[in-house]
C-alpha cells in the first residue's frame, strides 16, 4: 500500500511538473498579450506622448536637435547595431541557420524555424498596418525609414529571431551557465537594437517597448511549441538527425 501510494504521488508530481512547463509559459504569454493591447490603447490615446517626446529630445544636443548626444563613435556604433535588426541582416542570418539545419539533417527543425521567423515578421507587419502610427518628427531621422511606427519592426523582428535562436541553442546544452549566456546574449542584442532605433530618432520609445513585448511573446510561444513537438518526435531533438 505504501509503495503504491509513493508511486501515485511520484506520478502526480511528474504530471504537475510537466503541465507547469506548458501552463506557466502560456500564462506569461497571455498576460503579455493583454499588456500589449492595453499599452497600445494608451499609446493611441496619446497617454505616452509626453514621455516619448521627452526621451527623444533628451537624446539630442540642446543647441542642435539634428545632432545626437555623445561622441561620433557612439552614433556610428548605433548605426551598426541597428543594422543587426534590419530585414536584410535578419534574413541572411535566418537563411544561414536554416541552411545549417538542413545540412545537419534536421529538416523539420529548419522548416519550423523558418515558419517561426516568417510568422513573427508577418505579425509585426500586420500590427503596423493596423495601428498606422506616424513616425516621430520632433528630431531629425539619422537613418531612412518608410513604414509606419507602431510597433517597431526592428524590435519585433530582432526579438523573434535572436530570442528564438537563443532558446533553441540553449536546448542543445544542459549546463545552466551556458544556457544563461546564450539567452543573455540574445536578450542584450534585442535590447540594444531597440534602443538604437530611439537614439537614431526613427521610433518613439513606446514603439520599441511594444515591439519587444510582441517579439518576446512570439519567441516564447515558438519555444514552447518547439519543445512539445520535440517531445512528440515531430521535429528533431537538438542532438538528433531526421530519419533517412
What keywords describe this structure?
single chain, 244 residues, mainly alpha, two-stranded antiparallel sheet, 8 helices, 3% strand, globular
Describe the structure.
Helix content is 72%, strand content 3%. By secondary structure, it is mostly helical. The chain has one domain. It has a two-stranded antiparallel sheet. A hairpin with a 2-residue loop joins strand 1 (60-61) and strand 2. Helix 1 (2-44) packs antiparallel against helix 8 and helix 7 (176-199) runs antiparallel to helix 8. The radius of gyration is 21 Å and the shape is globular. The mean pLDDT is 85.
Give the averaged pLDDT, no decimals: 85
Poorly predicted regions are none
Strand order, largest beta sheet: 1-2
Helix content: over 70%
Summarize the topology.
Layout: H1 2-44, H2 49-58, E1 60-61, E2 64-68, H3 72-83, H4 87-103, H5 107-131, H6 153-170, H7 176-199, H8 205-231
Antiparallel strand pairs: 1-2
Helix pairs in contact: 1-8, 3-7, 4-5, 5-6, 5-8, 6-7, 6-8, 7-8
Question: Quick recap of the structure?
Answer:
The chain is mainly α and 244 residues long. 72% of the residues lie in helices and 3% in strands. The chain has a two-stranded antiparallel ribbon.
